[in-house]
User: Which sequence fits this backbone?
């Protein structure tokens, strides 16, 4: 079992910056991938950025060059630095963790934090 706690959401003007943070607890030894997803009203949840346990990072095309995901393996935390925010970035952002135990796959989610970008 993994628990994820997020912080750092808020309201910002277009062109501004926010930093999201997420801390994992519980069975953190088995976590493989950590990252961020987001969901806007009326839309499906989409990948923003993920970092696997080999350090490989994947970004959505829409955020490349603007967002930077970082992972501290020792502290079991992941952050998302968001620069050059656009109104279309407005969404609930969810921290994610993927756990591999006994060849079984489990996905965990934080409670979500609202990011609102005004024009």
Assistant:
């Amino acid at each position: 079992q993994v628990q994820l706690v997020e912080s750092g959401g808020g309201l910002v003007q277009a062109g501004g910056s926010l930093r999201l943070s997420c801390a994992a607890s519980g069975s953190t030894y088995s976590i493989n991938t950590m990252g961020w997803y987001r969901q806007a009203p009326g839309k499906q949840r989409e990948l923003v950025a993920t970092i696997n346990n080999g350090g490989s990072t994947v970004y959505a095309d829409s955020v490349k060059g603007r967002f930077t995901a970082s992972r501290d393996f020792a502290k079991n935390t992941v952050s998302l630095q968001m620069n050059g925010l656009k109104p279309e970035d407005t969404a609930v952002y969810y921290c994610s963790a993927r756990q591999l135990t006994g060849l079984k796959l489990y996905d965990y989610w934080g409670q979500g934090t609202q990011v609102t970008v005004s024009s």
The mean pLDDT is 96. The chain has no helices and eleven strands.
